[in-house]
Amino acid sequence: MEETQNSKLKTQNYTEYYHKRTGLTVGVNKVLFSEQTPYQKVEVFETDTWGNLMTIDGMVMLSEKDEFVYHEMLAHVGMFSHPNPEKVLIIGGGDGGTAREVLRHFSVKQVDMVEIDEAVVRASKEFLPEVGAWEDPRLNVLFEDGITFVKNSIAEYDVIIIDGSDPVGPAEGLFEKEFFELCFTALKKDGVLTGQTESPWVEEYHSSIKQVFDALESVFDESSMYLGFIPLYPAGMWSFAFASKGKRLEETETFERIEKGLSEFGSELKYYNKEVHQGSFALPNFVAEIIR
Amino acid sequence: MEETQNSKLKTQNYTEYYHKRTGLTVGVNKVLFSEQTPYQKVEVFETDTWGNLMTIDGMVMLSEKDEFVYHEMLAHVGMFSHPNPEKVLIIGGGDGGTAREVLRHFSVKQVDMVEIDEAVVRASKEFLPEVGAWEDPRLNVLFEDGITFVKNSIAEYDVIIIDGSDPVGPAEGLFEKEFFELCFTALKKDGVLTGQTESPWVEEYHSSIKQVFDALESVFDESSMYLGFIPLYPAGMWSFAFASKGKRLEETETFERIEKGLSEFGSELKYYNKEVHQGSFALPNFVAEIIR
What we know:
The structure is a homodimer. By secondary structure, the first copy, chain A, is an alpha/beta fold. The first copy, chain A, has two domains: 4-61, Spermidine synthase, tetramerisation domain (Spermidine Synthase, Chain: A, domain 2), CATH 2.30.140; 67-290, 3-Layer(aba) Sandwich (Rossmann fold), CATH 3.40.50. Helices cover 29% and strands 30% of the residues of chain A. Chain A has nine helices and 13 strands. In chain A, the strands form two sheets. Chain A has a seven-stranded mixed beta sheet, with helices on both faces. Chain A has a six-stranded mixed beta sheet with strand order 1-2-3-4-5-6. In chain A, helix 5 (177-186) links the parallel strand 10 and strand 11 (187-196). In chain A, helix 5 runs parallel beside helix 6. Chain A is globular and about 50 Å long. The model of chain A is unreliable at 1-11 (pLDDT under 50). Strand 3 (22-36) of chain A pairs antiparallel with strand 3 (22-36) of chain B.
């Protein structure tokens, strides 16, 4: 069996080389979508075991089988850490999965999802139709640059979720201090921010990870890293940022909110629960070292 | 660049296909060791970024760069959950890494390591020399069948650690109820057992995982699963079993033992700490479901 490298789709196996010659290989049956947009190359494959899988510039974004981990962890850790999230901003998130999880929360009145690339939404609606909750009337999808959008928002949001791709290409600005200052301003009192911050196993990203957490520490009142197991992301370990404007909710209050909230959801989540929320903030020593 | 499948080493990349056509690819510079033993095929590669890497029957066992996660989590979760571990049995563990972590504990007087395949120890001593603590006089290496060895042990050990390979080939018996009954008998009062129990992301192993935890639940007084992030194991998520003869140590007492113990170790661990110990028992819903 031959191999394809990144987004060259001539043969049956797709390999994302995430660190030199270390990579993740997935069996591809068919190319469903492939478009070079003004921003990036967006592709969707039908795979042998992960359902349909989307890549951007050759990097796996999500598959139908594993997306629940990333979306549940990115959304609920922040949402349950806010006393009453009503208005939520998602930067990126064009596949719709983060919005779907946010919209499970009964308190939510409006979700603004600001995705720079309409092709991501178009491809997702067609080939990852179960991921989004596109029909929810509380969801407001805008095709704009996230950074420009945040610049024009002052004390508007309870929760901001940064669901961009890697810090190369159009998402690069989402890892910079100026952006987090804009987010801080865009948040109301008691506002909470979460975002994806790459794999601690990939040395090339250590400086970006440190840059994010240094920025959050200087801009926000509290900040921490938390982790999730994502099988199709480099090395299977993914880091996320949590930050709060003002003191974070007491742990007992967070736990009460989680218990009440999860019991209100129509169906059980596949990954997130109270113990996972708490446990995800436990950092292995080598990970804590990256952001020390 | 061409690809090799499993242990066919003709070209530069090694791919372990762990679930149909999903696999982990690592760049290989050189084959250092390759031997078909009476039990299995043992190989060591020089890789581009993970140091030297050992496979057994085409499955990654460890690399110099990532082995600390597996060995710290397999050894310390059990060792710190026992009030005073003096005599420890390791079944398998021929690379020496688990014994190295066990021997950090000052209370330990004797470690019996029972490895069925001397070639694993031979290859490790030569090509993974930093992994083992072979010179420690408390270490007693025996080349025997682990199951037969345990049969002849009655109330001898404080901690038993099962460090075998996957439940195909010579390690198959290490996943069966009869074996755990022998372990229970081989443990002293307050005895603790830990073992590796595969990746929850790989569906083919779900029945083996459930079999282990059902057996532990019926044989031991308490048992639970815990998790670790291992980048070179399938999907990056690995599960471990914990079981205790008698009631497990109270959490406060475990935490005190961890704090005191870690402060006595000569150098800081790279993965394990008190929060990680606790957090590793938090199971995502889909994982808890496998052993429900």
